[in-house]
Amino acid sequence: MKTKIIIIGGIFTVTALIFIVRLFFIQVIDTDYKLSAENNTLRQVTQYPSRGVIYDRNGKILVSNKAYYDLKVVPRSLKEFDTVSFCKLIDINIDEIRKLINKSKKSYQPVIVKKQISQEEFGFIQEYLFKYSDFYVEKRTLREYTLPVAAHLSGYIGEVDVDDIRNDAYYKLGDFIGKSGIEKTYEKCLRGKKGVNIFVVDVHGRIQGKYKEEKYDTSAVAGKFLVSTIDSELQAYGEFLMQNKIGGIVAIEPATGEILSLITGPGYNPELFIGKNLSENYPEVKNRKGKPLFNRALRSMQPPGSTFKPVNALIGLDQKVITDRTVFVTSGYDAGTHIVRDHVFGAVSFEKSIQLSCNAYYCNVFKRIIANKEYSDYAEAYEKWKEYVESFGLGVNLGTDLDFEKKGILYPSSYYDRYYGKGRWNYNTIISLAIGQGELGFTPLQTANMTAAIANRGYYIIPHVVKEIEGESIEKKFKQKQYTKVNNSYFEPVIEAMEKVVSSGTAMIVYTPGIEICGKTGTAQNPHGDNHSIFIAFAPKDNPKIAISVLVENAGYGSTWAAPIAGLMIEKYLTGSISKPWLEKRISEKSFIKNE
Fold first, then answer.
1. Closest listed residue to residue 67, CA positions, set 277, 280, 282, 274
2. Which secondary-structure segment (H or E) carries 351?
3. What's the burial of 246, exposed, middle or buried (CB within 10 Å: 0-12/13-18/19+)?
4. CA-to-CA distance for 352 and 24, rounded, in angstroms?
5. Kind of pairing, strands 546-552 and 459-461?
6. How far is residue 359's CA from residue 363's CA, in Å, rounded to a whole number?
7. Distance (Å, whole) CA 284 – CA 269
8. What is the sign of the dihedral through the CA atoms of 454, 457, 461 and 464?
9. What's the alpha-carbon Rg for the chain, to the nearest Å?
């Protein structure tokens, strides 16, 4: 019994000692506890950092900041004041401020009386604010756009929600965070670091002075600047051409993977989503015709149509089922259950198959690919074909630095096993894939990247929109070559044929003296309405500086609308001017957004 008493007494003694030591530590040694304990007599005023500036590739400012002010008060410390005069001064309804004060009158926590007061408005208010000494201001910044372009690409910022706060302790209620685009992807670089000023206040909440001679104050650290890959002039020009149209444009510098322009039509003015205007304008913009908030450059998955023929040509060459001298005599292609119609007849060479966009030629090429005797069955041959297609960045997530990227549509052979029955389908069952139709859907970003891979003769660099971060390096993956499965020796005959498409083929409207443009038209069938107009191109043919993909939804032939847009943008980018003002006028004035 005595031993038990000693043990129990020992346990109590040790426990007491632990509590004593812990209390000594938190009350005497740990300064964080001191600050916490003194919170009832201190006021911490957050110093908000300026958000990082975003530049275009040529050093022009795309997104910067402008100052604004939040007017605050501690309700518990508020003395009587001339409410009518005050409300006139800050332009606020008297019932609104009474409701706010009555709701929080017992609180020592500051509340916002009026937020986002402009610098001009504050200049006037400041002259009279001394009459209302219980009110004070907190300076913050909002985004400002030098040019009203690239709304989807730069993105916008908005107030944090519960999930944002839960996921990152940095954020508090009332803070702002990137919601889309570069603002979202590079949030941690752009946001900077908040600082704090600590004041001693009396029991009425009135400031008595600085705490501990500013020993615990910290300065805000501005966000890092970013240099984007975007050419703001090309971006603005593309948006001008795409006004009143539905679709997307992506232009890439093939050698670097840098995105020169990323356009979604219809677009919207990014200034509509600044600060408190966001909550007002977001529903209105969202409900506009054409769904301008939907980023078609990254998310619209449409069949590539005939722009896909160069890929099938390259696969056929690499698998040695054709050569660049292969000729097919065509008058359409008999797929058993239907005829794939064509507009090219007779003996068609490899070069003319691309130059004139012969459907039957590529049905025969695809037949040879899927019926290749090197594979045990059609499914195995299809899976090999699929690997080739994916190596061009099609039907996969590219891993770009933009949010909401879609991977596209490219089904495995098991899809056809389920749909038709295992062993019950062949090349004719899926012959639409030969000409970029059927179960295919790629985004403008993916088809632009595919075009860059062709321009580079067999490789691409993952497309990205930021080329420099202040004090940091961009991710290594944005500098590494991603090789296709096609040997680079097979690209030249395809590129020669693509040059003929523009000089004497289906896209002669794009021909521009002095610039060797290689392109391919496409008209994607659309079961829900008019066909989609598509065009891919790069220029110059040797040492290409730009690769581009244009999608204009429900516009008809690729040669009529998408091709001229691409041609104008290529000329604008490479020469800085336009030689076909009549074409520019026709394109810019055309609308494909129906009023009903």
1. 274
2. helix 350-355
3. buried
4. 88
5. unpaired
6. 6
7. 12
8. negative
9. 32
Pairing assessment for the beta strands 54-55 and 226-228 based on DSSP bridges: parallel
Q: Which amino acid is at 464?
A: H
Tokens in use for 22?
């812990």
What are the structural domains, with CATH classification, of the chain?
A: 42-73+109-228 (3.90.1310.10), 232-589 (3.40.710.10)
Residue type, 144: E
Helix (H, G, I), strand (E, B) or coil at 331: coil
pLDDT for 476-517, tens place per residue? 999 999 999 999 999 999 999 999 999 999 999 999 999 999
Q: What is the pLDDT of residues 450-472, one digit of tens each?
A: 999 999 999 999 999 999 999 99
H or E stretch at 139: strand 135-145
- CB-based burial label for 464 (10 Å; 0-12, 13-18, 19+): buried
Taking residue 531's Cβ as centre, other Cβ atoms within 10 Å add up to: 18
Q: How far apart are CA 454 and CA 491, in angstroms?
A: 7
Cα 220 from Cα 210, distance rounded (Å): 17
Q: Cα dist. 576→77, 277, 570 in Å?
A: 62, 36, 9
Task: Output the CA torsion 567→570→572→573 (10° steps).
Answer: 170
The pTM of the full predicted model, rounded to 2 decimals, is 0.88
The residues, ordered by sequence, that sit 6+ positions from 569 with a Cβ below 8 Å of its Cβ are 234, 237, 238, 241, 249, 251, 261, 546, 548, 550
Do residues 302 and 551 make contact, with C-beta atoms less than 8 angstroms apart?
Answer: yes
pLDDT tens profile 383-398: 999 999 999 999 999 9
- Could you give the 3-state DSSP secondary structure of residue 293? coil
DSSP H helical ranges for 405-459: 413-420, 444-455
pLDDT at 3 over 80: no
Q: What would the two tokens of residue 437 be?
A: 């139709």
Where residue 90 falls (left for φ over 0; alpha for ψ -120 to 50; beta otherwise) is alpha
Report the alpha-carbon distance of residue 557 to residue 490 in Å, rounded. Answer: 29
pLDDT in tens, 361-379: 999 999 999 999 999 999 9
At 145, phi and psi to the nearest 5? -110, 120
Of 147, 150, 169, 172, whose CA–CA distance to 159 is shortest? 172
Cβ pair 265, 246 in contact under 8 A: yes
230 CA to centre of own chain:
12
Spacing of C-alpha 2 from chain mean position: 75
Those residues whose C-beta lies under 8 Å from the C-beta of residue 198, and which sit 6 or more positions away, are 35, 42, 43, 44, 45, 210, 211, 212, 214, 216, 217
Contact 306, 521 (CB under 8 A): yes
For residue 119, name the pLDDT band (cuts at 50, 70, 90). confident
Classify 98 as helix, strand or coil.
Answer: helix
* DSSP class per residue in 253-274: ETTTTEEEEEEEES---GGGGS
How many alpha carbons lie under 13 Å from residue 176 in its C-beta half-sphere? 23
Half-sphere exposure (CA, 13 Å, Cβ side) for 500?
16
Contact 73, 110 (CB under 8 A): yes
Distance CA 428, CA 413 (A): 14
pLDDT tens string 292-319: 999 999 999 999 999 999 999 999 999 9
Amino acid at 449: N
Helix (H, G, I), strand (E, B) or coil at 16: helix
